[in-house]
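User: quick one, fold this
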Amino acid sequence: MSDLAHLDAVTALRAFRSLQLSPVELLDAVTAQAERVNGDRETGVNAFTETFAGEARALAEKAATAYLNAARDGTPTAPLLGVPVATKEKHTLAGRRIEQGLAAHAGRISGADHPVVERVRQAGGVVHARTTSPEFSCATVTHSPMWGVTRNPWNLSATPGGSSGGAGAALAAGMTTLATASDIAGSTRVPAAFTGTVGYKAPYGRIPGLLPLSADWYRGDGPMGRTVADTALLAAVLSGRHPADHASWGPHGVPVELPEDPVAAVRGVRVGLSVRLGDFAVDAEVADATLDVAARLEQAGATVVPVDLPWTPARVMRTVFAHFGQILGPAMERECGDVASLAPYAQRFIADARRAAQRDGLVESLALDAALQGELATAMAEVDVLLCPTNAVTALAADGDHLDGPNVGDRHLDHYWEGHLTSPFNVANRCPVLAVPSGAAGNGVPTGVQVVGHPLDEAGVFRVGAAVEALVPRARWPLASDGDAPSLRADRTPSR
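Assistant:
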């Protein structure tokens, strides 16, 4: 097995069970890769807030012994036994710091594991590192005064996205095998697209969260991986009812069944196609990659149906910020201490949310949500899934505050959040959404598509996502363990 650092989890587990590979070997590979490529907080990938080398190796050694025993006497093994997992810093670990990039939280210690961490550990996963995010996970880039700049392994001048940018960067760079993420406006899917990885936004409540903010119906915690199968595996481990989250639902540990022949499985599936989700400006390279995915699905036997949506960026922004003005914005103000001490992007978010709350109250916010949800339901009435881009732009600068929107073609965006087509599906948060790679732009940064399902139809998005993965050629992973250490690239500097 070449380049163990980029080995997928499903293959690794198969090799563990057959004793062809030890969990210690895999952990050593990703640890060595992280030491080689992570670099410093200003110019490197910089995807981890902290690592647990000693604790993780002890767990890997224990897993290796368990596989030896299982091979001898047939005892079953846990579903993630021995697999390295990096957890997003906001996912609390008992006895460890929980700071969320905020100076006001410096030194704060968690008293308990987050439900997703608890389930990773129960499943035998080896938590070996924690991943970076922007302050309070409120941006689609990943940098903060506390943790520095996290960069995209495919092009270090570009962001890996946010807020789960550290997770996407670590996966793409071979610094972990699986990662946890979260999503309130695209924070799993945006970095998945920018890093060529796979991210899943489950229906609201399918994966338990941590109260009180898990009660926010735009939110969701979830999995990221390098393949659809890996992401489905981690989703099964994380999903299901949990006593700490009364909104959680459904069975725990039951995987979505992926077809043996994913290309054949999309024959007859009706795929709705919307490149612009109404009137979003979309970069030509992103649009072409999305159309290419649709053409490949059609050639495989799917029926591709153009879908019209009456959405404008201004209306979507009004809808989501009306919501944020009621919950997330006030929560940030309460938690952050001195607003003036925050990163500029966090100050901008709080100011936007405050203005939105003055314009639209809670009842108006609910009406705005209901209108978008109804229009999506109407648009998808005759299709099985909706296909659209994840990001409208090909990249954003890694260290930018993005207080102004970028240019897309000859159109200037009012807000950089308009560069992502993700937040409408947090408004319609009962819909599962799988983000999968669609190709790469000329700057080397990957592009991605979203596969949006009907409410609670998880199997449908994984079926189509697996077909997209099988049909779209994938480039060799960046920063392979037998290559050179990374350095900043000057070609095609991303938008600021």
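User: anything notable?
Assistant: The mean pLDDT is 95.
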